[in-house]
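Could you please consider the sequence and fold following this short note?
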Amino acid sequence: MSRESRQKAQGFVSAQQVAELAGVSRSAVSRAFTPGASIAPETRDKVMEAAAALGYQVNDLARGLLANRSRLVGLVTTKPEVGFRAHLVAALSRALIRRGNIPFLINTGSSEQELKAAQTALFGYRAEATIILSGSPPASFVELARQNGQPLVMLGRSETGCDHIRIDNAGAAESAARYFSRAGFTRLGLAGSESATPSIIERERVFTETARSLGCSVMVARGRDSDYAGGQRAAMSLLSGTERPQAIFCVNDLIALGLLDFARSTAGLRIPAELSVIGFDDIPEASWDSYRLTTFRQDPEEMARQAILQMERRLENPQLPPSVVQLDAVFVTRDSAVCEPSHEYQ
């Protein structure tokens, strides 16, 4: 059997194999891969040449455990593949890798059994810190993380004693209501979700309160989930009656996309001449020619950057008081909402 075949059969290349090929000690290999360690240049060159020939990579996990620092950072969420959350998880993963961490995605699932499995995975691997995304997990999970002494960064939710990154949901929802009111619309709709996160609940509440304070009526409909199908279900409720809304605020873009397709294909409405729609998130699909959705933008890269800063702050000084960073949701105007109402649809 060739050396290459033996390596494949044995699994990962070991430091001992590198030492044998280079003709040096095992400790010399360790020093060669440790920044600042004392090692003769010619010895280091031998080690690096042997490592390159064998395809050797340092076992960072083992090294971190020896130093009582795993470098793992847990990203805890439910349905990480859906909507804006998928882009936020991707941005967080990239930011953590750039920092030298190992992102560890924990999907809490939807059942008690799945939640317990998620807890076992996260705390069993001794993650260095945990970033928890909006809506998941329950407060009991957060408390268990605290008991294990983990630095926690919360995105889009409120927990006492934790660092937070929040988007200005209230400001955006209020702006959406005022935008519709200035355009002369008085019959408004809200497309929400029964499985709402704290962020979505806030958007629903502030939009409804603001619209009614401006003298507008508000019809509220919610899909089962915060997704495309949920938007279709909300649209069916909002647009099937004789007194349809003139404009609808959707609590996220996936709901807005489902609602737009129902409005055009099933209800036969022209967008925006007969119905104005505003979403929230600015996922890539919002800019597609099929939708051209007016929406509020959350920047996943900026949220990830701020989350890393919060994590580093907490790791450097665990005794600091909790910090809250609030980011603006920038209004992005496209073609799904008009500033002036259609006279034929009053």
Q: What stands out?
A: DSSP finds 13 helices and twelve strands in the chain. The two ends are 82 Å apart (CA to CA). Residues 83-99 form the longest helix (17 residues).
